[in-house]
Write a structure and sequence with these properties.
The structure holds two protein chains of two kinds. By secondary structure, chain A is α/β, with parallel strands linked by helices. Chain A has helices spanning about 15-25, 45-55, 90-95, 100-105, 120, and strands at about 5-10, 35-40, 70-75, 80-85, 110, 125-130, 140-145. The chains are: A alpha/beta, B alpha/beta.
């Protein structure tokens, strides 16, 4: 079961980014960490990942990986693997696309729509849940197991 | 010189025969939209399986329509990236096998740069064919890309602007999903917006005020979500039309404003629009009007050449092969190629 949960409220995409950066900074000594993100379209998942990249010291754009399924950001303290399961229908397709090679690699993996596949969801040590509260307001719950 | 072009970067399998880089002898695309519709998007593994099933029939059909035998093909061009790794590999494996078996040159092509070549494709090759003069600006807009290129030559171009988050076509697909419309979202929104009021909701034009040539479309998606949430459920058909039109207008205005800024920035008088989103009727009409006002020469290829196809790959491949840029059998996919 979930060992620990922290709940935050952010009032702008920038605050969501800052929270992502803070989480990433705490993971510098945890290569191989797998983080699952849960939340609907527009809930702030990509903003959070952009913050994580900044927290790891990655420069440049953090774009949506919906099209390529994975974006790899190097140049920071640890590589960041930004994975998006939005378009996947079955977990086997994840393996078909070769994504598991990244998930168990020596960087930080962050997976959008992680809750689509229970088997994968169970592998995430940290789960971040985004809830829409108002135009720019989001509730972000960080669970560590 | 006859080049066979192979495209399999995303959901469509394309093959085409192009003569001397410009004469369109045939172009066959097996659209997979019908397969993907029930999943509300492209399903990658499904896509690569379908590519495997479709690639030989699609190539056969392209050769047949061009009235060309496989022995007459002088070279093969194939999309190397960006795209889905599994899908790219199907096209690459086929192209490499053909190159090896027939002992003809092979070249790997950048999919985004290849979209520009649609503006150089024509049916006959007869005199008076109007093509863009170098250098010019190209705006490539699709489900995976939103990129401004400064094109200096067939094989030389520079990225001068790009999206910092979502691609424009991705915003169309995701907003269509938020609004409960079908896939492909671009077409659904285009149709619905025809009778809608584009000023119904004034969404913020993201990045429009910024002086650079980059785009951002993630915020518009969130703004639509906010609007839908604010209505507490009910989205009657009248509102849906207006919302689709307002969203579409926002994206179109941002694309046009940045394209115009790019043309000014590199002091060009010629603009090419291509990529799947270039099929959007509102974008085509509004950009045509704006280019007319600004005295620009605008090239928008026919819709079947704007969306993914093998002909644009063959065309760029021809120029690469002519320049001596040939690949070996170790040619590999570059899924995240800029």
């Amino acid at each position: 079961m979930d060992a620990k949960a922290d709940v935050y409220v952010t009032n702008s995409p920038e605050e969501t980014e800052a929270l992502g950066a803070e989480l990433a900074k705490g993971l510098l000594s945890s290569p191989g960490e797998v983080i699952g993100l849960v939340g609907e379209l527009g809930a702030g998942k990509t903003s959070f990942v952009r913050g994580m990249a900044r927290g790891l010291g990655v420069k440049g754009c953090v774009k949506s990986p919906s099209f390529t399924l994975i974006n790899v950001y190097e140049g920071g303290s640890l590589p960041l693997y930004h994975i998006d399961l939005y378009r996947l229908a079955k977990l086997e397709e994840l393996y078909g696309a070769g994504l598991e090679e990244y998930i168990y690699a020596k960087g930080i993996s962050v997976i959008e729509w992680a809750d689509k596949f229970p088997a994968l969801y169970a592998e995430c040590n940290i789960i971040v849940i985004f809830s829409y509260k108002g135009e720019d307001m989001r509730e972000i719950e960080i669970r560590r197991r | 010189m006859l080049i066979l072009g192979i495209e399999s970067s995303c959901d469509d399998t394309g093959a085409a025969v192009v003569e001397d880089g410009g004469i369109l002898r045939s172009s066959v695309v097996s659209s997979q939209d019908a397969i993907h519709a029930k999943y509300g998007g492209i399903v990658p593994e499904l896509a690569s399986r379908r590519h495997i099933e479709m690639i030989i029939p699609v190539v056969d059909e392209a050769l047949k329509q061009a009235s060309v035998a496989i022995e007459e093909i002088d070279g093969v061009a194939v999309t190397q990236g960006p795209g889905l790794a599994g899908s790219l590999l199907v096209g690459l494996s086929f192209a490499k096998s053909l190159s090896y078996a027939r002992a003809i040159p092979i070249t790997g092509v950048n999919h985004i740069e290849a979209h520009v070549m649609a503006a150089f494709l024509h049916k006959s090759g007869g005199k008076g064919t109007d093509v863009p003069a170098f250098p010019f600006v190209a705006l490539i807009v699709s489900g995976g890309h939103t990129t401004l290129l400064h094109v200096k030559d067939f094989t030389r171009c520079e990225i001068i602007g790009h999206t910092v988050d979502d691609a424009a076509g991705e915003a169309f697909d995701k907003v269509a999903k938020l609004l409960g419309l079908g896939y492909p979202g671009g077409l659904a929104i285009d149709r619905l917006a025809k009778d809608g009021n584009p000023s119904f909701v004034e969404f913020t034009r993201p990045y429009m005020a910024k002086g650079n040539l980059n785009f951002s479309f993630s915020g518009v998606k969130t703004a639509v979500l906010t609007y839908v949430k604010g209505r507490n459920g009910g989205l009657p058909p009248e509102i849906l039309k207006d919302l689709a039109a307002s969203f579409q207008e926002t994206v179109v205005d941002v694309l046009i404003s940045k394209a115009m800024r790019a043309v000014g920035a590199v002091n060009s008088k010629t603009l090419v629009l291509a990529g799947g989103v270039a099929c959007n009727s509102r974008l085509r009409a509004k950009l045509t009007a704006e280019a007319g006002k600004q005295g620009l020469r605008l090239f928008i290829p026919e819709p079947h050449l704007c969306s993914d196809n093998g002909a644009m790959i063959a065309s760029l491949g021809y120029h690469q092969i002519k320049k001596g840029s040939k690949a070996g059998l170790d040619l590999n996919a570059k899924p995240n190629w800029d």
